[in-house]
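Thread: "does anyone have the structure for this chain?"

Original post by V.I.:
We have the sequence but no experimental structure in hand. Need at least a predicted one for the grant figures.
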Amino acid sequence: MRTSSDCKLSGTVPKLNPFVGLAPSDTKYEPFGGSAGLIGQSTIGSNDPIRREDDGNLFDVEVSDVFNSKQEFQKCLHLMIIRTRYEFKVHNSSPTLLVVHCMDNNCSWKVHGIRVMNIGCWMVTKFVKEHTCAVDYKREGHRQATSWVIRDCLKNRYIAPSRTFKPKDIVDDVRERFEVQITYNKAWRAREAAYDTLCGMPKESYTFLPSFLHVLVECNPGTTTDLVLTQEGQFNYFFFALATSKEGYKFCRLVICVDGAHLKGKYKGMMFAAVCKDGNNSIFLLAWGIGDVENDSSWLWFFTKFKQVHPSIAKAIHEIYSGVFHGICMQHLLHNIKNKFRGISIDILYYRCAKAYRLCEFACLMNVLTLIQPRLGPYFQEVGYETWSRAYLEGRRYNIMTTNILECINAILVKERELPVTALAEEMRSLVQ
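Reply from O.Q.:
Generated one for you, tokens below.
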């Protein structure tokens, strides 16, 4: 089963934002420990007492205060009671009514709120502020400091996937700002919920890929995309190359670096990328791909799609690009040598050998290497001198001896590789545009 930019998608594909749960542009989330609730546009008139960011005490609730939704009302109550370190229990909750009382049945503290039917918002109708219970009812581990409340306070912290906010940091932040001790497990659940709210659920993200590709092609005419599913309708491969990348390759060096990186999200997989260098010696992104696993089939598929865009890796090169020179990254080759021949230190000598221009210089350095480890000679011959050394190079490498430019891309996307697949695809696109 396949959908691609070369054939029309069946049915009408809506122009959906792939990031489910993102707040609209006219909505603003409060900073952690800041304003209570989600404050956005409301249907209430300007003279009505709606909660605003410029209120004097953002953690106080007053009679006649209005909230956009029941969840916003509940969140405000949670944040307010957390600051006092008291706890409350829900006495009555329905689609039109919310009543909360203090945990002490003899305490007079209570809040009543109702849904205003004609405008759909929630209003505070009764609020008894004073606690008549003992201070023994104050708790270190607060029952109202739930993971969803902490999640809503965290969402503004994840404006970019590269921002690191560990559960331990969340525990410390909550303790500092609210004087409440939460468990590591609750902090971890709050962090994961914040990720899911902003970037979408990992499983649901796959259902947004067809819409994402459709919008991508519409906004970038000439872009090539491909989405391959299994016979059971499950995700298999995903590929796209923007029109700007296809045009820009005409002015780049004729050496393409290709590599893969493991995804770190819930469903794992591999990210494939092809890059080169332009005339300004800058990294130029050519194509992206995502596969369920890294094997011969996935690489053959990626190179097949890549060949359509630009009229194991070595096997794919020989089968798809017959007659094209295939070079090896000298840094990766050295890494393989160290794993195969333990305890030898040949870094400097090996680099001099790889970068030597003359055959006589290469032969001299190779003799020294084989004296250090006699088994290196047969190993280099099996790999092929022409794949890693300048002296035996059959084509032009334009001074590109490693795939470090691809390692730079992998390093940039190290946190993004934890995202759901559609959010990761958007991050890939944003690197080019």
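V.I.: this helps a lot. Residues 1-58 have pLDDT under 50 and may be disordered.
O.Q.: and Residues 16 and 269 are 24 Å apart (CA to CA).
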